[in-house]
Amino acid sequence: MGATAFFYLLLSLWLWVQDATAADLGFTRSDFPREFVFGAGTSAYQYEGAVAEDGRSPSSWDTSTHAGKIPDKSTGDVAADGYHKYMEDVKLMSETGLEAYRFSISWSRLIPNGRGAVNPKGLQYYHNLIDELVNHGIQVHIRLHHLDLPQILEDEYGGWLSPRIIFHSICRCLLQGVWR
Question: How far does the signal peptide extend, from start to end residue (predicted)?
Answer without folding.
Answer: 1-22
